[in-house]
Amino acid sequence: MSEPGALILIVEDEPSVRRSLRTILLDCGFRVVEAETAAEAVLRAREHNPDLVLLDLGLPDRDGLTVVTAMRAWSLAPVIVLSARGQEDDKVTALDSGADDYLMKPFSANELLARIRVALRHVAQRTPLRDPVVELGDVRVDLGRRVVTRSGQEIHLTPHEYKLLEVLLRHADRVVTHRQLLNEVWGPGHSTETRYLRVYMVALRQKLEPVPGRPRWIITEPGVGYRLRLDRELASS
Amino acid sequence: MNRTELDGDRPDPEALLEVARAEEARAKRGELKIFFGAAPGVGKTYAMLEAARRARAEKIDVVVGVVETHGRSETAALLEGLERLAPRTIEYRGKPLQEFDLEAALARRPGLLLVDELAHTNVPGSQHRKRWQDVDLLLSSGIDIYTTLNVQHLESLNDVVAQITWVRVRETVPDAVFDRADDVELCDLPADELLERLQEGKVYLPEQARHATEAFFRKGNLLALRELALRRMAQRVDSDVHAYRRAHGISTTWAMSERILVCIGPSQNGPRLVRAAARMAAGLRAEWIALHVETPRLALVRVTGRGTLAETIRLAESLGAEVVNIGGESIGERILEYARARNVTRLVVGKPSQPRWRELLGGSVLDTLVRGSGAIDVHVISGDEGPLARRPTLQPATPSGASPIPYAWAVAGVVGVTGVCTLLYSYIDLSDIIMLYLLVIMVTAARFGRGPSILAAVVSVAAFNFCFVPPFYTFAVADARYMLTFGVMLLVGIVISGLTERVRMQAEAARGREQRTAILYSLSRELAQLRHKQSIGTSAARHVAELAGGRVVVLVAGADDSLTPLQGTDVELVADPLEQAAARQALERGPAGAGTDTLSSAKALYVPLQAVGRTIGVLGVTTGDPVRLRHLAEQELLAAMSGQVALALHRVLLAQEAQQAELRARTEELRGALLSSVSHDLRTPLTAISTAASVLGQAGPMADEKRREFASSIYEEALGLGRLVTNLLHMTRLETPGVALRREWTPLEDPIGAALTRLERALGRHMVNVSLAPDLPPVLLDEVLFEHLMLNLLENAAKYTPPGSAIDVSARVEGASVVVEVADRGGGIPAGQEDRIFEKYFRVGGPAQGGFGLGLAICRAIAVAHGGTITAANRPQGGALFCVTMPIGEETQTALPSAQEATA
User: Fold this and answer.
1) Where are the domains positioned within chain A?
2) I want to staple B535 with a disulfide (CB 3.0 to 4.6 A). Which of B19, B412, B530, B833 is the partner?
3) Domain-by-domain residue ranges, chain B?
4) For chain B, first and last CA: distance in Å?
5) Would an 8 Å CB–CB cutoff place A27 in contact with chain B?
6) Which is more confidently placed, B811 or B497?
7) What CATH number does the domain located at A133-228 have?
8) What is the pLDDT of residues B652-699, one digit of tens each?
9) HSE of A192, CA atoms in CB hemisphere, 13 A
């Protein structure tokens, strides 16, 4: 459940959007701080040390990205980027430079709250997935024993496939960019070879998904990366 | 020739129009004021500087471009406090020379610029050959100019001055420049005072020219020059008065009544003739024509003679003549024909320079003219060429020239015939022998021209005498009657050689003409078939190179004033900035580069390509030989060829413009459709949103369910608006020229899966069956765009089919493509509209139906951008079937090393 009392910094220059966000968040028991510009955002963040930041990328003074970079120098608080469609590059850059997730405008209150919940949960857990066993429908992933089974039958995964699954699970419900996946599974130096990644993802889906053509667990975020979706509230954006 | 005279109170409208036009041109041009004097030292520069100081006092931005003080302190004092442009230093033959900096002046753009000595010749390597050309350019860019000029530098007075002073002035200014000046101020000084100043050392004389110049400053000379200057000034004032009267309707009786025709040829006194005609025309205020009749013989006159002709023609043009070139055999008759056709009133010809006996033999042009002139006055200008002229050198160009070989052949021919005749002497008659000799003379004339054939005639007579006339083998003649035989034989030989030579020349001239016509014909025929700028350029370059035997480049002017060389022509030729400058000059101001007066240090000659009153490009041609280029510049053939090329290019450009206009019209139409579509599509959801929101905002209790319904309606409509905006954005991006797709090797599972996930809610009430073939290879595509395509197709299917019906998504490989199908079981597509539904803003059933009219158009745009296709059809069992075919892209199989590892 959401953690009442968590302090959320809203960085958004549009007053109407800011107002809706404030209303939604206050209704749900969060505390809210607001900033209109990138400079103000950095200032407020230092002042209040928020638990989470909602960041609009198109700010009047500077690129929202600079806020992410500045924050990451001293804070681990999750940053959720709010962006319009068609700005895939900006999203990827923001994620790669330390943002935790993104939400595409226009979004619904439910989606927003779901993302905030996921982000806060990841912070609270620190070591995510305390429970080493995760169930994806009839597929059971035992991270402790490194075994994957479907209805008791073991599914054979190659080492890379298993590692991919593990990374996705570690970031469950959050988007993971192509670059992050490549870095974590193949190591730095392979971060541009998305083609391998995509082929592995097809193979992984074929082994795990009931209908690989219409994935239920491993969701593609076009132009950005993948998301392993455990929380059904999380509609794809 | 009198024009219809108008009512005395009203000015001639045409003349008024002319005045208005001239005034308009002047409004844009800067004003030129000339300080005019009879000789150096009368104080022109001084007067100019004084005027400049007055102008500065009136707050005019005065800059000194170039002023020679010649070390005189009075003049230098006047210069003080005036802004001066630094001179440009040009390296010429190893010596640094200072020159007026035209570019700096253009960049500085003062209100008034002082440029001393209008007649100055620029250092080679400058943009223009003469300073007055610099001044012309400055004027046309709107800068006012003060300048100085001496009377002896006026082109039309050049000979007169030379006759008076015996000093030929090489630096001249066309009279047109003087006449066009807005203001001329005469700086006058009596001869005695000038001489006094000279003695006091107040007149600058260059050291090396002191001697010659002193001869110039004799009192008689100075008096004559002063008279000339005053007269020229009076003439100018007179024409000013005329202009004034015309503008104010004071005189309407003035009309052009005289037309002068001057006949020019490749003779050294051509320029003199032209100047005389120019003076006469100016005095009579008549228009004048310079006519050159090209006879077969003249067509072959050597290039040296041609050079003189070219200079004469150029001079005539610069003095304001209309230059006409006609062809014909008889010069006199052609001149008369032309003169009558043009209603010429006065004919100006030179005194004949050929000896009298030739006139008696061949007739003289002058004679023909005088006898046939009728009402036309004939003015014969002195053939006396003045103190400094040279005799004309008019040499026919025999191909073999001065080579001794033809003469050897002539002698050998005669010797051969003599041998044959010696052998056959007992069988043939003496008259046959004479015939054989005449045959040799004729063949020699036909083959080698006049000189060798005359030699053959002489040698024949000698050989005939030596071998066949008793006493044999001596040159003595026993019978005096043979002397007559010899005489007749020699005469016949010479006449035959003359006739044969003439025929040969005519044939050669004809051949030359034919060759030129053939080149022109083949060019025009070829150009007529070409449809691309490139191929026109290549064809033009080939033909011109055939004519000129050098390198050729064709440049096309763009809308932004750029000049782009056409590929396929010699692009490297214009790599040099100097060449580019010359080409630009040609585009803006007519022929330039080698062989012309402008930027003549360029390698190539550039002529503008003009078609239908519009300069669309430049043709550049270079041969190793500048004389040949100069010759080319004069020739009408190059002009004709460039005209053909220009027409062809113009045709192509017109076609392109028509195409663009059509495109624009279509864009306009689409914009209209967009406006109506968007206004409808935006208004509908906006109305729904605002209504629902206002209901929600009303005070008072409301059932929770009702409230939720309104809220959800707002949410759905807002999402719809968001999609509309996304569609518009994608469409714009796809229509931006040169937009790059972000293609990556992508398994179709990714974008199709993403689209299905995103539409989970919208597709919730449909049965979606997905069947992707197991062997689907990754496809080279833009994932985001392809997902959008699938999104639009699926959304369309969801919208137009009843809930609960099935939507089938499938993908398979077909050859080098993948085929993705989305099939539904709705009402299908109205017959005949399968293709139209992909058009922008088209909606099935018209606007009333709702929907965005853009989704399918974007699907098609995305498919096409990937090199694929999209089609729509109705399924036989009912419902619509959309079929997207995408090329897989190259090297699919090779670059998948991971495929093996994936199963390992």
Assistant:
1) 7-125, 133-228
2) B530
3) 13-247, 259-381, 405-506, 530-659, 740-887
4) 106
5) no
6) B811
7) 1.10.10.10
8) 888 888 888 887 877 777 676 667 766 777 787 888 888 888 888 876
9) 1
Q: B174: cis peptide before it, omega within 30°?
A: no
Report whether CATH 3.40.228.10 matches the domain A7-125. no
- pLDDT tens string B216-226: 777 778 888 88
- Residues B472 and B642: their CA atoms lie apart, in Å, by 67
Distance from CA of A85 to the nearest CA of B (A): 7
Tokens of B568: 């396929």
- CB pairs under 8 A, 24+ apart, for B453-458? B453/B410, B453/B493, B453/B496, B453/B497, B453/B500, B453/B501, B454/B493, B454/B494, B454/B497, B455/B407, B455/B410, B455/B411, B456/B410, B456/B411, B456/B413, B456/B414, B456/B493, B456/B497, B457/B489, B457/B490, B457/B493, B457/B494, B457/B497, B458/B490
- Radius of gyration over every alpha carbon of chain B, rounded to an integer in angstroms: 43
- Residue B26, pLDDT score: 56
CATH code at B259-381: 3.40.50.620
Alpha-carbon distance of A141 to B255, in angstroms, equals 110
B756 with A214: Cβ contact below 8 A: yes
User: Is the CB of residue B560 less than 8 Å away from at least one CB of chain A?
Assistant: no
In this prediction, residues A105-120 reach a mean pLDDT of 86
Which pLDDT value is given to residue B327?
A: 73
The DSSP 8-state label assigned to residue B218 in this structure reads -
Task: List the end-to-end C-alpha distance of chain A, in Å, as a whole number.
Answer: 22
Q: Which residue of B has its CA nearest to A86?
A: B726
> By percentage, how much of chain B surpasses pLDDT 90?
5
- Read off the pLDDT band of B538 (50, 70, 90): confident
The CATH number of B740-887 is which of 3.30.565.10, 3.20.20.150, 3.30.70.100, 1.20.1250.40? 3.30.565.10
Same fold, B13-247 and B740-887: no
What residue has token string 């809203």? A10
Determine whether the interchain pair A85/B898 forms a contact, defined as Cβ–Cβ distance below 8 Å: no
- B45-68 pLDDT tens trace: 888 988 888 888 888 889 998 887
The rounded radius of gyration (Å) of the Cα atoms in chain A is: 18
CA distance B436 to B793: 101
Give yes or no for A23 touching B (CB within 8 A): no
Among 2.60.40.1120, 3.40.1130.10, 1.20.1440.130, 3.30.450.40, name the CATH number for the domain at B530-659: 3.30.450.40
Q: Which two tokens stand for residue B383?
A: 């053939």
pLDDT of A6 > 50? The answer is: yes
Is residue A237's pLDDT more than 50?
no
Contact residues on chain B for A212, CB-CB shorter than 8 A:
749, 772
The answer to whether residues B863 and B882 touch, using CB atoms and an 8 Å cutoff, is no
pLDDT in tens, B434-444: 888 888 888 88
Question: Can you give the pTM of this predicted structure?
Answer: 0.45
Q: How confident is the model at residue A11 (pLDDT cuts 50, 70, 90)?
A: very high
> How far is residue B273's CA from residue B82's CA, in Å, rounded to a whole number?
45
Q: Which residues of B502-526 are buried (b: 16+ CB within 10 A; e: fewer)?
A: eebbbebbeeeeeebeebbeebbeb
Name residue A237's amino acid: S
Tokens 């008065």 correspond to what residue? B241
Q: Which residues face B880 on adjacent strands?
A: B874
Residue B718 touches partner A, C-beta closer than 8 Å: yes
Q: Pick the most confident of B195-209, B381-395, B610-624.
A: B610-624
**Residue B902 or residue B605, greater confidence:** B605
Contact check, Cβ <8 Å, A214/B718: no
